[in-house]
Write a structure and sequence with these properties.
The chain is of the alpha+beta class. The strands form five sheets. Strands 9-11-12-14-13 form a five-stranded mixed beta sheet. α1 packs antiparallel against α7, α11 packs parallel to α12 and α12 runs antiparallel to α13. It starts with a helix and ends in a 5-residue tail after the last strand.
């Protein structure tokens, strides 16, 4: 288990304990000040007992009322005790009485009863400070008490054969609430013992059981909650450790990525990041391999030429011409690699400015027409109107030059390379089409890969399209490549499409 798990768990239980402590503290402060109790809240059960006091006094006298109050105090479920005070503040059951009993009587609703002699008694509810201790003790014998047999309680008229009240352990049931008044039960019911059951409440009503249920439920929920939040963090930690060990294809499973919370979003972002890192590192390794391969051939030819010059000094002029040609090829290769590297890393200084696209196309086409004519090919430029875009003229010129020269290279003799400039809504498109054999469908997605030449046997290092794509993207545009098809479904050419946003300031 990680630290996050325990932090969540301890935070949950700390909040639970803090809430319980605050509730207990507020309750204690509200119940007592300077050691003296305050008037308690009169709940439904307590209000029923206080309201029935006069009825019990009329039915069984002050002894019956005293027995009921004594049983009330002994009940572990009662949080308060009820004092039965005379005018001098003395309790009938000889219990401790608060010093400010007179003020407490004024603060709570008046509950006053009179015995048969006319003496007034006052009922005062005060908190039981030993309630928590008694409440805990009551849990020990709860099950045993709940299984005790029923007790026999004799319910008789209070004036029948018991001048001294009920014996200890028995209670006299008043008949006032049944509508019989103070005359007692009818003659046929007098002296008949009524059997009643004095059972404890079910175990699930006891506070000890309720506390245990709350604790168990809270523990279960907090454990699940802590595991729910800590599990994706642990998996993400293991995945990051795998990345640190050069396992770049590390991916988090669907259990984490399928989550619809922030952890799921982080997991999906991690997978995307890992893929990007793996592609970048693979691209660098492939680039290093391809560069090494591209340099090997011209360097090998240079070595052969140097050896030839040493063996046949008479042909040194011819050898030097070939060395110069190979050197130019190496220089062009280095320049292509440096340009691609700057565009790929974003280190190239992009200078955006307003560019007349038609003028730029004509400038590129001027050099392209000479190359096309030398190969018995044609280059045509079609434009709807002059269009201005915000771009880097040097980068855009380089991209257009690569695409046009590439189209001239692959189109057959006596065919046309068409360059079309069209404005559409908020963007402009440049379509460069040839009538060559096209590209195999499986190779279309690889055309922008550095040094990829497919099955082409033409000269070149395979960086032209990669440089063109990144140059167009540096100007805020997009570049796409696709084959052209005739009505019969046969490939009849190849097309490159450059999309650039119009300059909003024009």
């Amino acid at each position: 288990m990680g630290q996050v798990f325990w932090k969540f768990l301890l935070a949950f239980w700390g909040a639970l304990i803090l809430a319980g402590t605050l509730v207990w503290a507020v309750n204690e402060v509200s119940r007592s000040t300077d050691g003296e109790p305050k008037p308690v809240w009169i709940g439904p059960q307590l209000r029923l007992v206080l309201g029935s006091a006069q009825l019990m006094m009329d039915s069984g006298g002050i002894k019956l009322l005293g027995d009921v109050l004594q049983r009330w105090e002994e009940d572990p479920m009662s949080r308060d005790k009820i004092l039965l005070l005379n005018n001098q503040g003395e309790d009938y059951l000889q219990r401790d009485v608060p010093g400010d009993w007179a003020q407490l009587l004024k603060d709570q609703p008046e509950y006053k009863v009179q015995d048969k002699s006319g003496q007034s008694w006052f009922l005062l509810a005060v908190p039981r400070h030993e309630f928590l201790l008694e409440w805990l003790r009551s849990g020990r014998g709860l099950m045993a008490t709940a299984s005790m047999p029923a007790q026999r309680i004799d319910v008789q008229h209070p004036q029948a054969a018991r001048p001294h009240g009920p014996p200890p352990g028995e209670a006299v049931q008043p008949f006032g609430p049944t509508g019989l008044g103070d005359k007692g039960p009818p003659p046929e019911m007098r002296g008949i013992a009524v059997r009643a059951t004095m059972a404890m409440p079910p175990v699930w009503f006891h506070p000890a059981f309720l506390l245990a249920a709350i604790l168990v439920t809270s523990l279960s929920v907090s454990l699940w909650l802590a595991w729910y939040f800590a599990s994706p963090v642990r998996q993400l930690k293991r995945a990051l450790q795998s990345l640190a060990s050069d396992h770049w294809l590390t991916q988090l499973g669907p259990k984490v990525t399928g989550r619809r919370d922030e952890f799921g979003a982080v997991a999906r972002s991690f997978n995307d990041m890992a893929k990007s890192v793996e592609q970048a590192i693979s691209g660098q390794r492939r680039l290093l391999h391809d560069v090494s391969h591209e340099f090997r051939s011209p360097l090998a030819r240079l070595q052969i030429l140097v050896g030839l010059a040493r063996q046949t000094p008479s042909e040194s002029a011819m050898v030097l011409d070939k060395v110069e040609a190979e050197t130019q090829k190496l220089n062009a290769l280095v320049e292509e690699i440096l340009t691609y590297s700057r565009l790929e890393s974003g280190a190239a200084a992009v200078k955006l400015q307003q560019v007349d696209l038609l003028e730029l196309l004509e400038s590129v086409a001027e050099d392209g027409r000479l190359e096309a004519l030398s190969q018995q090919k044609q280059l045509l430029v079609k434009a709807d109107a002059k269009v201005r875009v915000l771009a880097d003229p040097d980068l855009l010129y380089r991209a257009l030059e690569n695409l046009i020269r590439n189209a001239i290279k692959f189109t057959p003799a006596n065919t046309v390379v068409a360059v079309e400039l069209q404005q559409q809504a908020q963007q402009v498109q440049i379509r460069i089409s040839d009538q060559g054999p096209g590209v195999a469908h499986a190779d279309l997605a690889k055309l922008f890969t550095p040094f990829f030449r497919g099955q082409s046997k033409k000269d070149g290092v395979g960086l032209g399209l990669s440089i063109a794509k990144r140059a167009v993207e540096s100007c805020g545009g997009e570049m796409k490549l696709h084959n052209l098809y005739a009505a019969s479904g046969i490939v009849c050419g190849f097309q490159a499409v450059i999309s650039l946003p119009l300059d909003s300031n024009v």
